[in-house]
Amino acid sequence: MREIYLPLHDGKAPYWLLNRMKKLASQITRLIIIEFGEMEFIKRISNPIFFQSFSNILGFDWNSSGATTVLTGVLKAVLNNSEFEIRIAGGKGIHGLKTPEEIRNMAEKLGIDSEKIVKFSRLSAKADNSALIDGYNLYHHAIFFTKKHFTVVQQGMNVQEKMARRYHWEVYDEIPRFEDVHSGIITDRFEKEVINMLSSKSKDSKMLFVDIMRDGTFRKDYEKLISISKKGKAFFVPRKIDWKAVEKAYDLKVSSFEDLLLIKGIGRETIRAFALISDLIYNVEYDKQDPAKYCFAVGGKDGVPFPVRRDIYDEVIEFMEEILKQSHLSDFEKNKALERLKAKKY
User: Fold this and answer.
1) What is the C-alpha separation between 36 and 40, in angstroms, rounded?
2) The pTM is what?
3) pLDDT one-digit tens code per residue, 312-332
4) For the chain, what are the domain ranges?
5) Residue ranges of the alpha helices (H) in the chain?
6) pLDDT digits (tens, 9 = 90+) for 80-100
């Protein structure tokens, strides 16, 4: 399988390609669900390599940011109108903003509690946009859910570098503590330093964050941080702190980091400021390592940034080959899809 790159691309996929992709996606999706069940399909979607391979097999041959948005749109069209009980809410831009409304409408028809899924959707979007500060701003958010399980696939952009990275979450049946939640992050490169408050290595820092908000000392610590910066220390202190949101966190006496994420106004600047407070004032370190797990797909041919995980590729390719062979596509369509799959091998 070739390396995966996600350069930012404008424009839309042509209608003839979308119609073709929907036809193929319907066949493959139905077969996976019938043969292996809804849970298996959700697990596969949470696998970044499967997701990328699925997009390529359907005919979206470009390794670009569009692979995420187009495949999500195709699967929404296929699954949200099917007899199966898998639903997809959200999407790119304005469609992402409609996610809560879409969840509630579809959950009501499925007869399930929508608010847990809405809460997870809000938390996961806020988490990757504000608690994982890696230089990418979310512009695509999609949640895949059944009556029992849910996962998220979302994408951020770095406008200056003209690159995107896609975030895949593990599959859950309850809202988890937000530690090591990603099943994989596809990106073209590792960032040298990030603020990763979603890491288990940031556990102590997050607990300190909650304590500071509950005790009402954040403003005082923030002023200390500014004082340190004026002494010539080389770091940037965020200036756009929403102090009303900080006051609200104090009034609510939040008990967890997840509760803080749900407060409107507790965003990237506040979390960045706190991370510096934690490290420089309290000597409680947070995780500064980029959590991307699938840079250059799953490694580089020369072992940089780490060896290729051929076992992951081989498993995905074998699975997709078997699904395609069992499908009811015409011989021409089946052979073309298999050719596209084989073209991704090393």
Assistant:
1) 6
2) 0.85
3) 667 777 777 777 777 666 776
4) 15-192+291-342, 200-280
5) 15-36, 38-45, 48-57, 66-79, 94-97, 99-110, 114-126, 203-215, 218-229, 243-252, 257-261, 268-280, 310-326, 331-342
6) 989 999 999 999 988 888 999
